[in-house]
Amino acid sequence: MLARFTAARRLPQLFAVRYSSSQVEGSVAKSKEFSKKEKAHEDEYIHRHEMEQLAKMRKQIEQKKAELEALEKEREALEKKA
């Protein structure tokens, strides 16, 4: 009787079908070409973002320079009056 239960437990394992394919799930995301392309896109985005930030900073610097010149002219005018 013990052999009958053991054999019954093994039957499903004998008939289990495993499918295999040449591609593994997520294999595209792991490929070197995809990684290189993704890194290139990220680098391009970062470069573009940094250029935008630099342009904003340059604009702010120019505004501050103009503000400083206006304040210096105002100071010189006040010194002439005194």
Please provide a brief summary of the model.
With 82 residues, the protein is mainly alpha-helical. 82% of the residues lie in helices and 0% in strands. It has a domain at 30-81.
Outline the fold blueprint:
Elements: H1 2-14, H2 27-30, H3 32-81
Family: Belongs to the ATPase inhibitor family.
Coiled coil: 47-81
InterPro entries: ATPase_inhibitor_mt
- Helices and strands, in order, run as HHH
Average pLDDT works out at 80
Supply the number of helical segments.
Answer: 3
The tally of beta strands, per DSSP, is 0
Which class best fits the helix and strand makeup?
A: mainly alpha
Organism: Amanita thiersii Skay4041
Function: Inhibits the enzyme activity of ATPase.
Pfam families: IATP (PF04568)
GO cellular component, one term: mitochondrion
Overview features:
82 residues; mainly alpha; rod-shaped
Report on the architecture of this protein.
It is found in: Mitochondrion. InterPro entries: ATPase_inhibitor_mt. One of its GO terms (molecular function) is ATPase inhibitor activity. It comes from Amanita thiersii Skay4041. The chain is mainly α and 82 residues long. It has a domain at 30-81. It is built from three helices and no strands. It is rod-shaped. The mean pLDDT is 80.
